[in-house]
Design goal:
The protein is an alpha+beta fold. It has 5 helices and 16 strands.
Length: 324
């Protein structure tokens, strides 16, 4: 069980924490408005304040005790816009605006309670100079802000048709810085937009170097970014590869031609040997029909030689021939 005094302390601590969180949400540039009875030590101050587009900004006046104030004036000078003035007069407890058309630039609260100015949210058009002038019996006190709106560039890395690598940081504010790893032969161009942004494009190639992977490093006030890309073989390597392939094709072609000639010679040799082996039987076969023809074409010659005439008949024929 907690003691009563401990419970009270915890409750007080919780209330104090909530109060601090609430107070910090209305603070400007991480500083708290302070109250001083004697503000003679204050002098005019100007501050450069880079802020990311889309964020909320709170601009504070010099830390002067509100009870000593007579008038509070904000002067706002923006690019391509008319001079804007916001004023608060304590004696009449009234505010007045001149040429102030941007509804995103307002007082944080009632000027008699907090004279700070707020911008919700910050846009590119809010790039400019803001000055708070506080009038007191001891004089006027100033605090100025050179507000620089930052825009994060869109980074892309790609390979073009001719084999070069292109790194692009588009629509950044201010202009980004591009570097390469490894370093190559690069050309950097800048294109300015009408709203104050800048597009930076760097084109690189690594002729004569065997580079397979390159890194594009983009430096910017809003943060750095690196992208990698793989490159195809360089022209020299391509030529070597093509020459190597051509040599292989030629060697294979020569081997095919030599093999074909060798096979053709082997085939002719075999045919010649076969013709020699079969020559004699072929001649005998060709003579046999001629011999049979001769034998069949002279049957009388062969029959006469074979027929024998009787002796008596031969004598009678001879006698008849003599009688004649």
């Amino acid at each position: 069980m907690l003691c009563p005094w401990r419970t009270a302390n915890l409750g007080l601590l919780l209330i104090l924490t909530v109060f601090l969180v609430t107070a910090s949400s209305s603070s400007c540039m991480d500083e708290t408005q302070i109250t001083q009875n004697n503000s003679a030590f204050l002098t005019e101050a100007n501050t450069s304040w880079p802020i990311l587009m889309g964020k909320n900004a709170v601009l504070c006046c010099p830390p002067i005790a509100l009870k000593y104030l007579i008038i509070i004036t904000w002067e706002i000078i923006l690019r391509d816009q008319p001079f804007c003035k916001k004023a608060y007069k304590k004696e009449t407890n009234e505010t007045k605006e001149t040429n102030c058309t941007d509804e995103r630039i307002t007082w944080v609260s009632r000027p008699d309670q907090n004279p700070a100015l707020q911008i919700r949210p910050v846009a590119i058009t809010h790039d400019g100079y803001y000055r708070c002038i506080m009038g007191a019996p001891d004089g006027n006190f100033h605090r100025g802000y050179h507000l620089q709106v930052l825009v994060t560039p869109e980074v892309t890395l790609f390979q073009s048709r001719n084999g070069t690598a292109v790194c692009k940081a588009a629509a950044g504010k201010p202009a980004a810085q591009i570097s390469w790893i490894p370093e190559g032969d690069c050309v950097t161009e800048q294109e300015y937009g009408g709203n104050g942004t800048v597009t930076v494009k760097s084109t690189c190639h690594w002729e004569g170097h065997d580079v397979s992977t390159v890194t594009c490093h983009v430096s910017h006030l809003t943060g750095n970014k690196s992208l990698d890309i793989e490159l195809p073989p360089v022209a020299g390597a391509k030529k070597s590869a093509k020459l190597y392939i051509l040599c292989i094709i030629l060697a294979i072609s020569v081997l095919i031609i030599v093999g074909f000639i060798w096979l053709l010679k082997i085939g002719r040799c075999r045919k010649h040997k076969w013709n020699k082996t079969e020559a004699t039987p072929v001649e005998e076969d060709e003579m046999q029909p001629y011999a049979s023809y001769t034998e069949k074409s002279n049957p009388l010659y062969d029959t006469t030689n074979k027929v024998k005439v009787p002796q008596a008949l031969q004598s009678e024929v001879e006698t008849n021939l003599h009688a004649v």
